[in-house]
Specification:
CATH class of the largest domain in chain A: Alpha Beta
Low-confidence stretches of chain A: none
CATH topology of the largest domain in chain A: Rossmann fold
Strand content of chain A: 15-25%
Oligomer: homodimer
Largest interface: A-B, 35 and 35 residues
CATH superfamily of the largest domain in chain A: P-loop containing nucleotide triphosphate hydrolases
Order of helices and strands of chain A: EEHEHEHEHEEHEHEHEHEEEHEHEH
Largest sheet of chain A: 6 strands, parallel
Shape of chain A: globular
CATH architecture of the largest domain in chain A: 3-Layer(aba) Sandwich
Distance between the termini of chain A: 30 Å
Radius of gyration of chain A: 20 Å
Number of strands of chain A: 15
Chain lengths: 335, 335
């Protein structure tokens, strides 16, 4: 399990395009209170609108880590980025990365981290071996976001649901299972990087025993309907032992992304498949509602779609970005 | 994918108990034609009843590899075993191991292998990165053995089925997914050692496009009903895209081994779950029969059980060790 030192300084390199800085914008939006400021190379053209501060200034202000919030081309770290990151290490900050390439592959960074006694943290790579799942029922309550496909709002829904539960006065913790989620939460386990035999065991460890009324809101991964990634999805489902699932869906998607021969299932079919699989480790599992990514729908389309779906499934239907997920949080509270 | 050099010399170390030499006995029984002989330390007390020959004699007789057929205590290789294995490397043999500990962790062996240009092969560990599954339908036919639990005959059934298909004149290849299977087949991929995102992709690679009438008989892993290992099972099922499954079962087992809170499902429930999951990548998947590990049943019990089950499921029911699997092979041929 990764545990990061907050607050963060966000690093933007010499990015010119905002789309290359998705991670940084996500952190600004989802954990603004944990971000002191931004830093970039003089040639950089992107800003998050946050206070600009050097690693030294950030460290003096209490920062624990500099987070690489920009995706470099080809996964390599340009020399001048390494200059900046080395300066951050020298200032006493951990360097945190969600890139494929491990930070320790860069000898300068490795040496500087050792010299200063600070850490190079690759949230995409597991830190340790995990135990085989025990299957033992844990105390506390759990909800897992699941999907008809990848990349349609499972992380976003889980984050929104955590906030909505807190707004209702419920105790809730977001549990991150992917790199961006880990950066936002400050801890978590990247499930897709684990050896298959240990995914369920890692999921058990990610959401340990808790107070009876506490909700772990677990970020889902992949989809049971994805021909490549369903294994991760199933291991996470079994290890999470969720009491509830929220199904995430994008109504404009007809087939699994990049798999045109694989149709997106009907929502009732998807709910049934997740509940059947989830019952192995939690007999009481139920679906409390649907989270829709409706960004492609006009307002009237969305309202018609939402009302039709609620009637069809007799479940609340929300878009976290369009009216929020209070209905889903209420359904969880009332469970 | 591991590809081993046959024939083998089987190494028994200084084993005193036959049960410590399960791997060697399995290889003797399942690929006798690929085994030249056995070798052990002078203190060893176990024999396979094969010609005893030194690594030098085996190499002169055409052997390609010495296979560690015995499990050492704690996974470490005693110094005197290393003496024997170093001699085998010097004689020009590859050393093949299914142990957790990597052979390359022993500096003497690493140095000897480099010096002689031969290989240290750990079949439990992946040799390479695998691609993400494509989901593309492949030519040729495939059958996968699946189970109500782990360790109840999936490998044995797949091996027996391969032979039975060949006896019927069908072209068939056993595809190994675990360490012992890989040693028997001389090639394969240890699925449980892979990063979860790549299990389905590795399974696709393991059984590539083939002649339309050719059967790949794929060794199953784990169980969809196992709270820790179902992820591997599902990835292997999706990537294998089997046209047929054979369900393996031990009627004396009431709960998942070592998981007393997890009941073994009814066979009809298990078949249904595997077919539902398998349809994602092969709409035509069907169950052709049941393979029973009936070793705990007396002959009359077995016959009564078999007849009752055939009537209940309207599927052929076999025990590979009690009458063979010709019925299952026939069902595959007639598919």
């Amino acid at each position: 399990m990764h545990v990061l030192r907050k607050p963060y300084l966000l690093y933007l390199g010499d990015a010119v395009l905002k789309t290359d800085c998705k991670t940084a914008f996500g952190l600004r939006d989802w954990c603004r209170g944990d971000v002191l400021g931004e830093w970039s190379h003089p040639q950089g053209r992107v800003t998050l609108g946050l206070p600009r501060m050097s690693p030294q200034e950030a460290a003096a202000g209490g920062a624990g880590s500099i987070v690489i919030g920009v995706a470099p081309t080809g996964g390599q770290l340009p020399e001048h980025w390494q200059d900046d990151l080395e300066a951050a290490l020298e200032a006493g900050l951990d360097v945190v990365s969600g890139l494929h390439t491990r930070l320790a592959a860069f000898a300068r960074l490795r040496a500087a981290a050792e010299r200063r006694g600070v850490r190079l943290i690759d949230v995409r790579h597991p830190t340790r071996e995990f135990p085989v799942a025990s299957g033992r029922k844990r105390s506390g309550k759990r909800v897992l976001t699941v999907g008809t496909d990848c990349a349609l709002g499972k992380k976003y829904t889980a984050l929104a649901l955590t906030r909505a539960l807190e707004t209702l006065g419920e105790a809730a913790t977001f549990r991150a299972t992917g790199q961006t989620g880990i950066l936002i939460a400050g801890s978590g386990i990247a499930m897709d990087a684990l050896v298959a035999d240990f995914v369920a065991g890692a999921a058990e460890m990610l959401s340990p025993d808790n107070q009876p009324d506490h909700w772990d809101v677990i970020e889902g991964q992949g989809s049971l309907f994805h021909p490549a990634y369903a294994a991760v999805t199933l291991g996470l489902l079994h290890g999470s032992q969720p009491d509830a699932i929220v199904l995430c869906h994008d109504p404009t998607r007809r087939t699994i992304e990049e798999y045109p021969d694989y149709p997106i299932p009907a929502l009732a079919v998807a709910i049934d498949a997740y509940l059947r699989a989830g019952r192995l480790t939690n007999k009481a599992i139920r679906c409390v509602g649907i989270s829709i990514n409706s960004s492609e729908l006009a307002e009237t389309e969305w309202q018609a779609y939402r009302i039709g779906l609620e009637r069809e499934l007799t479940l609340p239907v929300c878009d976290p970005l369009r009216g929020g997920v209070a209905l889903l949080a209420g359904a969880l509270r009332d469970l």
